[in-house]
Write a structure and sequence with these properties.
By secondary structure, this protein is an alpha/beta fold. 31% of the residues lie in helices and 19% in strands. Bound molecules: zinc ion (2 copies).
Length: 259
């Protein structure tokens, strides 16, 4: 079974390709359960996401595609939601979708994974940034509003590695994720970034396995050709940490599958 729950659409203004092209590529790649989780609307960083007025259209488009393709592939509908206190919206958090991915892309409004703002890293102590990042992940888990943690160690995107032991840095966040019964995604996008590693690292995955946190898989595709890329290697990474089952979601309920 191949599961891929994190893929974008044109609506976020920084992706390309039609919904049909993504689905066709997913079918070609042998994906069994394919989910769209486009960037949810928010009154911050509006440039890189759909507007609130587009939600109904987005949801209808994916639901319709799910029916059209149901004999070839299972399509799921979700959102990737920014954990950004003060800017999250109940229309998104209560959307009637299959799952919500919670992602930290901002620390006090700093888009740390955006190359435009990479200069800000120079003014920071790397370990402190990692501490703040994992504190936000822990808060997100405690909110219990999301099913999946997006790219757990995105903070490494440009290769800034902490001096402190990662296991110590991430412990509280992983305990919170386990307590909230969330899943973690293995996300291939990190291989396309300067860090050139999948998210999360094997160390973090092993910690997750020890806590019985389920995993799922993510191309995080922003172009149809990125769908399914290095999925085999993501599975190997999950197996190396001990996993043999992965999660998918329907109406915000988890289902487990052998992969
Ligand atoms: Zn994106
Ligand atoms: Zn993301």
């Amino acid at each position: 079974m191949t599961i891929d729950l994190h893929n974008h659409t044109l609506r976020c203004n920084h992706a390309e390709g039609t919904v049909e092209q993504y689905i066709q590529k997913a079918i070609d790649e042998g994906i069994d359960i394919f989910g769209f989780a486009d960037h949810a609307p928010m009154d911050f960083d509006e440039k890189y996401r759909m507007g609130f007025e587009e939600m109904a259209e987005y949801e209808a488009e994916i639901r319709e595609a799910a029916q059209t393709y149901e004999d070839r592939i299972l399509i799921r509908l979700g959102y990737e939601v920014d954990w950004l206190p003060g800017h999250m919206d109940e229309r998104v958090l209560n959307a009637e979708v299959d799952y919500l991915i919670g992602s930290v892309h901002f620390l006090s409004g700093w888009g740390f994974d955006n190359p435009e703002f990479i200069g800000h890293w120079k003014e920071q102590k790397v370990d402190e940034v990692w501490e703040r990042y994992f504190a936000e992940i822990a808060e997100m888990a405690r909110s219990r509003r999301f099913e999946i943690v997006g790219h757990l160690d995105l903070i490494k995107v440009f290769g800034h590695k902490p001096e402190r032991d990662i296991r110590e840095l991430a412990e509280e966040a992983l305990d919170a994720i386990a307590a909230a019964e969330m899943s973690l995604e293995l996300n291939a996008a990190g291989w396309r970034k300067p860090v050139a590693e999948a998210y999360p690292s094997l160390d973090l995955l092993r910690m997750a396995y020890d806590r019985k946190i389920p995993v799922t898989f993510a191309s995080d595709a922003h172009k149809p050709e990125q769908v399914g890329w290095r999925m085999r290697e993501l599975k190997l990474l999950a197996r190396e940490a001990g996993y043999s089952e992965a999660a998918s979601y329907r109406n915000r309920a988890r289902q487990m599958h052998k992969f």
